[in-house]
Design brief:
alpha+beta
Length: 98
């Protein structure tokens, strides 16, 4: 299983607009992928910094197929004017405790 993480730094004053835009992108995760959870968390010390975590994906290839869809790319383009920077990472699960 893998997870997608985004490290987002939002332009000052555009934080709430970014949250709304990010929420709209979660609707783009196809419904035929049960169990996918999308989370967006905000840094309490730097409220312009967010981390998104989406998954679990079955494989890096499945995640890449979603990232390359036109709808997903368009959603990212809508977020771009709100950002100072964004970094993408893909992580694999090595330990899970519940």
């Amino acid at each position: 299983m893998v997870y997608s993480a985004g490290l987002w730094l939002v332009e000052a004053g555009k934080e709430e607009e970014f949250v709304r835009t990010w929420e709209a992108t979660t609707a783009l995760v196809p419904g035929d992928r049960p169990g996918i959870v999308s989370r967006l968390v905000r840094d309490l010390d730097e409220p312009r910094r967010f981390v998104s975590l989406v998954g679990p994906w079955k494989s890096p290839e499945e995640l890449e197929r979603v990232r390359t869809t036109p709808a997903f790319q368009e959603a990212l383009e809508r977020a771009q004017p709100l950002l100072e920077s964004v970094e993408w990472r893909t992580y694999e699960v090595v330990v899970e405790i519940s």
